[in-house]
């Protein structure tokens, strides 16, 4: 199908021609270097055709653009080309099976120019794009009467790979590695099934995105924090906030210093540090601190690599009460010129200053910075508290955002309260034009919040009516749910599928939402971060994998290791049996529930832990049972032995749901799965065929630093 857009052509500063397709309702898309384009074609209306993300034809004024000539090189990558020539790799198409999408190229990454494939990001997850509009229903009728459809769905769950859901208890407790069980029975909790199905219905029914992204700050949404002097994509944003000056006159810190206090149940403040002359903050050499026994040296030389590394066994991040002397602010030569007041002597506080030039303050030793050279070698010193200065309140909004910050929690080893309960703790902060605190932290280069919140990157959905996910699952403080998920119990014939010995999975680590190049929509006009105008990618789902390569090599695990965990998964081939009860659902609502439960052949769900490693793939089969309310009240013994099975109506209900959504979104499709958005969902749900393992793995640090863009699901082989 041909789509309409505008072709943009411009020259970069280096004279390279940049060609993009400009849409009306989303950011421009760079097209592959495969078409012959002239700068004079800029701003021309065009038509184009794409195959699962890859643009294969472009027409301007009805004339098709020519393809660039290809270099005469053999494709030795083992990957499909789109030139129409024979695949000399000896392999089948990109899935190793029949092409289930009916098109030749589904990767968006094939070599079409004779050059090396363009580098793209890889990850064990991807995103189903956001819906621009929300499909709504009228608010459910009164809950004190029967109407619509009431009954239950019996679900049979078959594990396609090992799955694991941890039983309740703390890490390291006896039995904590066991699969979840209650009353002596292994089970998939109803809450886990509910969360998985809620997300699926939200996607398939064009419901409003984001029912669970507000965090503690429900009224405004999550706001991420960042700190970097390295990445060109946010370096300027960060530097402009905390650093002043220039490379000629020297750079200086804009941050202020003070002392952090918790003054009530959920109230916090900062009391500024004293200013003597023009100085409130000072820098001190690591050698001087270590020489006075206030801390160990932050880094030590590694004789094997001739590099410096963190003195992990002895160096500590801490603050220390001290006396110190200093020189007035001056410019000091480092990699760049830096302007600061330098500490010339320092010692532990003992209540007895030796001279009139010795001042009371606090030393702040922060984290290690890796480097080929010695690394970071300056610590911070601040004056004592100014008892006459105005006390500054930390707003609840800022404090909630601080508590929500994932990386902050991580650095506090999971205990965010360990930081925010401290009194009289040296800290640093920035204020806005009104003098109110806009960010704070406990080192001089602290993490600062992005200007925008997650909710700022969502479509502006209409608020009329409730969406289908809300209608089924309820709305907080408004009306209750009408679906109830029971635990799914392990079948007796699957007892041999329970793992009895502990297994150690590979470390579950990888990019988080702060990795804006992966989680935000990007364009060819420059990388977007959480300070920019763009939108989030959509609903995050994990790829299905074979589930065979998830265990860690035990020979590399040290006794002191704290990153690995132990689990006892339930293996592939096991069966669970559960039930979903529902009350007063319309045909469309029950159709939505059945549509996401009863998936087409070859598709599967994901549940539980270790999904990035390939665990958690399940296939669900359903049986539908409906109550006949009229007959029940006419006949005393009606439904005495249970409800009558109505599985023959499953497809009818699913079709009612599909027709309703297709009509509301204005797409003329015979099936909801044929819409562009659900094609992306379907690609994520395919258990057979699965993508190549190399195309859905976490990137190593070197590749991650390149900030490559993640292709769409249909753009992955």
Rounded Rg: 30 Å
Instruction: Briefly note the structural class of the backbone.
Output: alpha+beta
User: Separation of termini?
Assistant: 22 Å
Content of β-strand: 25-35%
**Taking all residues together, what is the mean pLDDT?**
82
Overall description:
There is one protein chain. The chain is globular. Strands 9, 10, 11, 30, 31, 33, 34, 35 and 36 form a nine-stranded antiparallel beta sheet that branches. It has a six-stranded antiparallel beta sheet with strand order 3-2-1-4-5-6, with no helix packed on it. A five-stranded antiparallel beta sheet has the order 25-16-15-26-27. The two termini are about 20 Å apart. The protein is about 15% helix and about 25% strand. With about 725 residues, the chain is of the alpha+beta class. It contains 13 helices and 36 strands.
TL;DR?
15% of the residues lie in helices and 26% in strands.
Keywords, please?
15% helix; alpha+beta; 717 residues; 36 strands; 13 helices; single chain; 6-stranded antiparallel sheet; 26% strand
Write the layout of secondary structure elements.
Blueprint lengths: L2 E9 L5 E6 L6 E2 L13 E8 L2 E7 L2 E2 L60 E5 L6 E2 L11 E11 L21 E2 L2 E4 L1 H15 L20 E2 L8 H8 E4 L3 E4 L2 E7 L5 E5 L8 E5 H6 L7 E4 L4 E4 L7 E9 L3 E4 L3 E12 L10 E7 L12 E6 L8 E3 L1 H9 L1 H6 L5 H4 L4 E7 L5 E5 L6 E2 L16 E2 H6 L9 E3 L2 E3 L25 H4 L18 E5 L32 E11 L1 H11 L7 E2 L10 E10 L2 H6 L9 E2 L4 H16 L10 H10 L15 H4 L13
Parallel strand pairs: 17-22
Antiparallel strand pairs: 1-2, 1-4, 2-3, 4-5, 5-6, 7-32, 8-29, 9-33, 9-35, 10-11, 11-31, 12-28, 13-14, 15-16, 15-26, 16-25, 17-24, 18-19, 20-22, 20-23, 21-22, 23-24, 26-27, 30-33, 31-33, 34-35, 35-36
Helix pairs in contact: 1-9, 9-11
């Amino acid at each position: 199908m041909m789509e309409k857009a505008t072709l943009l052509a411009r020259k970069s500063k280096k004279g390279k021609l940049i060609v993009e397709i400009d849409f009306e309702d989303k950011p421009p898309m760079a097209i592959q270097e495969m078409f012959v384009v002239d700068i004079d074609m800029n701003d021309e209306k065009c038509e184009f055709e794409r195959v699962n993300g890859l643009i294969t034809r472009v027409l301007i004024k009805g004339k098709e653009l020519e393809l660039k000539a290809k270099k005469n090189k053999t494709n030795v990558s083992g990957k499909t080309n789109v030139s129409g020539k024979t695949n000399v790799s000896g392999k089948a198409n990109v899935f190793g099976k029949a092409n289930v999408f009916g098109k030749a190229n589904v990767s968006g990454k094939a070599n079409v120019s004779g050059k090396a494939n363009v580098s793209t990001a890889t990850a064990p997850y991807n995103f189903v794009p956001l819906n621009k509009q929300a499909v709504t229903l009228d608010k459910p009728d009164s809950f004190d009467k029967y109407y619509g459809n009431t009954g239950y769905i019996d679900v049979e769950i078959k594990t396609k790979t090992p799955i694991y859901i941890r039983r309740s208890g703390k890490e390291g407790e006896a039995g904590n590695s066991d699969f979840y069980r209650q009353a002596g029975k292994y089970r998939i909790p109803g809450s886990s099934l509910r969360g998985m199905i809620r997300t699926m219905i939200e996607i398939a029914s064009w419901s409003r995105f984001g029912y669970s992204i507000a965090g503690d700050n429900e009224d405004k949404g999550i706001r991420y924090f960042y700190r970097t002097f390295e990445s060109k994509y946010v370096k300027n944003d960060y530097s402009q906030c905390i650093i002043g000056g220039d490379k000629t006159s020297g750079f200086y810190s804009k941050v202020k210093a003070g002392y952090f206090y918790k003054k009530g149940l959920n109230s916090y403040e900062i009391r500024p540090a004293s200013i003597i002359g023009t100085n409130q903050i000072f820098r001190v050499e690591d050698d001087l601190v270590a020489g006075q026994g206030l801390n160990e040296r932050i880094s030590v030389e590694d004789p094997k690599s001739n590099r410096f590394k963190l003195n992990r066994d002895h160096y500590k991040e801490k603050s220390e009460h001290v006396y110190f002397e200093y020189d007035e602010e001056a410019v000091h030569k480092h990699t760049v010129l830096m302007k600061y007041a330098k500490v010339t002597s320092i010692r532990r506080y003992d209540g007895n200053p030796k001279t009139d030039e010795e001042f009371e303050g606090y030393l702040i030793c922060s984290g290690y910075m890796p480097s080929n050279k010695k690394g970071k070698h300056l610590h911070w010193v601040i004056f004592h508290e100014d008892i006459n200065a105005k006390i500054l309140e930390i707003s609840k909004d800022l404090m909630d955002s601080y508590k929500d910050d994932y990386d902050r929690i991580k650095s506090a080893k999971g205990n965010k309260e360990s930081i925010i309960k401290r009194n009289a703790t040296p800290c640093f902060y920035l204020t806005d034009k009104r003098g109110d605190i806009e960010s704070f932290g406990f080192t001089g280069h602290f993490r600062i919040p992005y200007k925008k919140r997650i909710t700022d990157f969502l479509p502006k959905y209409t608020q009329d009516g409730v969406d289908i996910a809300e209608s089924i699952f309820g709305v907080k403080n408004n009306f209750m749910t009408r679906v109830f998920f029971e635990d799914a119990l392990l079948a007796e014939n699957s007892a041999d599928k329970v793992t009895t010995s502990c297994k150690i999975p590979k470390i579950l680590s990888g990019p988080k939402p702060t990795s804006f190049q992966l989680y935000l929509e990007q364009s060819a006009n420059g990388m977007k971060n959480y300070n920019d105008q763009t939108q989030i990618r959509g609903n995050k789902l994990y790829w299905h994998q074979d589930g065979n390569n998830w265990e860690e090599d035990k020979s590399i695990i040290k006794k002191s290791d704290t990153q690995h965990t132990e689990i006892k998964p339930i293996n592939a081939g096991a069966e669970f049996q559960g039930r979903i009860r529902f009350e007063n659902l319309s045909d469309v609502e029950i159709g939505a529930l059945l549509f996401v439960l009863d998936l087409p052949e070859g598709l599967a769900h994901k549940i539980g832990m270790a999904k990035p490693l390939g665990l958690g793939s399940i296939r669900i089969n359903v049986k539908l049972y409906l109550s006949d309310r009229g007959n029940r009240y006419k006949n005393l013994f009606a439904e005495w032995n249970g409800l009558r099975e109505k599985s023959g109506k499953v497809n009818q209900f699913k079709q009612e749901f599909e027709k309703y959504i297709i009509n509301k979104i204005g797409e003329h499709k015979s099936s909801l799965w044929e819409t562009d958005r659900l094609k992306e969902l379907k690609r994520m749900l395919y258990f057979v065929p699965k993508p190549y393992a190399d195309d859905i793995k976490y990137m190593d640090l070197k590749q991650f630093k390149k900030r490559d863009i993640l292709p769409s699901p249909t753009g992955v082989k």
